Amino acid sequence: MGKLDIHVPDLKKHAFRVSKNRGQTAARIRIPGGAADTKVLQKVIDIANRYGDGTVNITNRQGIEIPQIRLEDVEAVKKEIQPIIDHYQIVQGKKETGFDSSGTRNIVACPGAKLCPFGNYDTKALALRIDHEIFPNDRHVKVAFTGCSNDCAKVRMDDYGIIGMTEPQYNPDRCVTCKQCVNMCKRRSVGALSVVNGKIVRDTQKCVGCGVCVHYCPTRAWTRSREHYFRIVLLGRTGKRNPRLAEDFIKWADEESVVKIIKNGYAYIEEFIDPNAVEHKEHIGYIVDRTGFEKFKEYILQGVELGEKAEVASPMYWGGKHYSTFGQ
Question: In the chain, what are the domains?
Answer without folding.
Answer: 8-87 (3.30.70.3340), 108-165+228-325 (3.30.413.10), 169-223 (3.30.70.20)
